């Protein structure tokens, strides 16, 4: 038995799970002196979803946010969470982007990088791991925990053994949906400790209020570090309570030694941002489904944009079904995004896999790595036809993205790096962002129970390859009031192509050139009708 260390997540994942928003930079700066004295092993304050949220919601520069956090931590490690080769985006990046990103983050003060691949395809973590090691930082390799016929103790011990052999400094069990019960947590940690020689960490989200019990059993099994969130950013789908864990382990051999007064002071300093953001404990949150709270929130927000919240239950059931169709990946990072958005499309159209998003097409092509289990054959045929998925590490097929300076690892290539990241996140940080998800019609009916392969090629809403055609569909039925772009003219991803009476717009699914326009001002169309085609000229 030995002292257990704690990673605080309230500045990143904890806040996003609890409120759907990040604390402001000012609130974080006020809280850091207290949190720095509290006795944490590390504070997870950057990377992951926080990078995109800084840009999308707060219009903050995430690199400046990183520097501000680093200045406030004199005694505590700063942790960043990355989705392996996807970093903080929704696609795999070329190796030069991974190298430059990690080097820049390390130079600005990140001490610990937690790397996770939702498919548990550990080879996709190797490039980022090498970059972390070159920077002299601590590398924690995460195992995406989920439940399926494939995911048993033998599966997790195999992944853990491979992570340990690759050279990670610790192995972390990452349970985004809170699917581990206390007894399972004990068993998984014990099994991992039998096959690895490095410390085992546990990052289990709280489901049905069992988070503290999961932590207790993980610690009893030998976990060296647990991830928590300060009250009131804990529980209800977020991380277990830091305060409860500190009290629960107090005066035991595992006592983390956290200072209760510092925890209270830090929470009070962050409290202003919590009070200013509605806490979205929506009644639609289904605790009986293995869906992370972040995915529930994304589904609710997407449906809310189309006044279709009555269909939340249908969409969450579809999330579970799509995950099963795609080979049971853990719902983490980019995989969580594409599954949630595809579920909303299914509910909106009333048809499964007739319209598929670019991310799902990339996934079925193997561009995120090898799924834990084979993709359903009918679904794969619906999405990519007779095309065979790629074999091997996806990034091996990607050309360098940063040019000569970036390829050489120079930190002077920051502009190229930011361009690559912003493009992946579908952002335009200089102007008010248009919605970044494809338009979805208001749900007309429930979703069919089983996928049916279409007789012809599936419809597309975007493209990830330059020169490829992307189709655009009417988000609503009605009269075309404004045509913004004519054939031959350039288009920008996320910008309106055509607007309808009532203000709804059909958005460009990718940057490129408008090839064909099938409607004009005054035309009346039905919801879901094909209205335009765009030729991509950039990676998305």
Query: In which order are the strands of the major sheet placed?
Result: 1-2-3-4-5-6-7-8
Query: How much is the radius of gyration in Å?
Result: 23 Å
Tell me about the biggest sheet?
Answer: 8 strands, parallel, barrel
Number of helices: 18
Secondary-structure-based class equals alpha/beta
Please count the beta strands (DSSP E, at least 2 residues each). Answer: 18
Low-pLDDT sequence parts? 274-287, 407-411, 427-467
| Whole-number mean pLDDT | 82
Helix percentage range: 25-40%
Shape: globular
Report how far the terminal alpha carbons are from each other: 49 Å
Q: What proportion of the residues form beta strands (DSSP E)?
A: 15-25%
What would the keywords be for this entry?
540 residues, alpha/beta, eight-stranded parallel barrel, four-stranded antiparallel beta sheet, 36% helix, globular
How is the topology of this model organized?
Layout: E1 5-8, H1 13-19, H2 25-37, E2 42-47, H3 49-56, H4 62-72, E3 77-82, H5 95-107, E4 112-116, H6 126-134, E5 138-144, H7 153-166, E6 170-175, H8 182-193, E7 200-204, H9 211-221, E8 225-228, H10 242-249, H11 260-275, H12 293-304, H13 312-325, H14 333-349, E9 355-356, H15 358-364, H16 377-384, H17 403-407, H18 414-424, E10 459-460, E11 469-473, E12 478-483, E13 490-491, E14 496-500, E15 505-507, E16 512-517, E17 524-525, E18 530-536
Parallel strand pairs: 1-2, 1-8, 2-3, 3-4, 4-5, 5-6, 6-7, 7-8, 9-10
Antiparallel strand pairs: 11-18, 12-14, 12-17, 13-16, 14-15, 16-18
């Amino acid at each position: 038995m030995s002292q257990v260390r704690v990673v605080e997540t309230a500045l990143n994942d904890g806040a996003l799970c609890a409120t759907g928003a990040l604390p402001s930079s000012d609130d974080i700066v006020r809280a850091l002196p207290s949190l720095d004295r509290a006795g944490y092993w590390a504070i997870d304050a950057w990377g992951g979803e926080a990078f995109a949220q800084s840009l999308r919601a707060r219009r903050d520069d995430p690199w400046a946010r990183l520097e501000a956090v680093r200045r406030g931590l004199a005694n505590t490690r700063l942790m960043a969470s990355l989705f392996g080769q996807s970093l903080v985006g929704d696609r795999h990046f070329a190796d030069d982007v991974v190298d430059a990103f990690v080097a820049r983050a390390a130079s600005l003060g990140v001490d610990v990088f937690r790397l996770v691949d939702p498919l548990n395809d550990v080879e996709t973590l190797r490039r980022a791991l090498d970059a972390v090691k070159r920077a002299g930082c601590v590398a924690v390799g995460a195992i995406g925990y989920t439940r399926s016929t494939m995911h048993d103790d033998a599966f997790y011990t195999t992944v853990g053994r491979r992570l340990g052999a690759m050279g990670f400094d610790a192995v972390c069990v990452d349970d985004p949906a809170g699917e581990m019960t206390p007894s399972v947590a004990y068993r998984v940690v014990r099994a991992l400790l039998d096959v690895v020689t490095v410390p085992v960490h546990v990052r289990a989200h709280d489901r049905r209020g069992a988070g503290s019990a999961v932590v207790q059993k993980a610690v009893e099994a030998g976990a060296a570090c647990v991830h928590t969130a300060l009250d009131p950013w804990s529980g209800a789908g977020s991380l277990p309570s830091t305060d409860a864990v500190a009290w629960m382990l107090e005066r035991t051999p595992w006592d983390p030694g956290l200072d209760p007064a510092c925890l209270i002071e830090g929470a009070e300093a962050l409290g202003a941002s919590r009070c200013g953001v509605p806490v979205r404990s929506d009644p639609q949150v289904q605790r009986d489904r293995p869906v992370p709270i972040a995915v529930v929130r994304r589904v609710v927000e997407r449906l809310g944009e189309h006044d279709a919240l009555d269909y939340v239950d249908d969409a969450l059931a579809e999330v579970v079904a799509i995950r099963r169709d795609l080979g049971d990946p853990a719902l983490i990072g980019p995989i969580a995004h594409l599954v949630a958005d595809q579920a909303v499309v299914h509910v909106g159209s009333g048809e499964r896999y007739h319209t598929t998003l670019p991310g799902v097409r990339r996934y079925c092509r193997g561009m995120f790595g090898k799924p834990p289990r084979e993709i359903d054959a009918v679904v794969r045929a619906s999405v990519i036809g007779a095309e065979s998925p790629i074999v091997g590490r996806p990034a091996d097929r990607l050309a360098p993205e940063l040019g000569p300076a970036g390829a050489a690892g120079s930190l002077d290539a920051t502009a190229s790096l930011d361009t690559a990241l912003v493009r992946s996140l579908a952002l335009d940080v200089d102007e008010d962002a248009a919605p970044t998800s494809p338009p979805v019609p208001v749900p007309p009916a429930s979703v069919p129970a089983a996928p049916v392969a279409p007789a012809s090629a599936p419809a597309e809403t975007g493209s990830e390859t330059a020169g490829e055609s992307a189709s655009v569909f009417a988000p609503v039925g009605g009269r075309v009031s404004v045509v913004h772009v004519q054939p031959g003219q350039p288009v920008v991803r996320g910008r309106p192509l055509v607007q309808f009476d009532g203000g709804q717009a059909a958005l460009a699914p990718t940057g490129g050139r408008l090839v064909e326009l099938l409607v004009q001002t005054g035309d009346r169309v039905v919801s879901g009708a094909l209205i335009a085609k765009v030729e991509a000229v950039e990676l998305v």
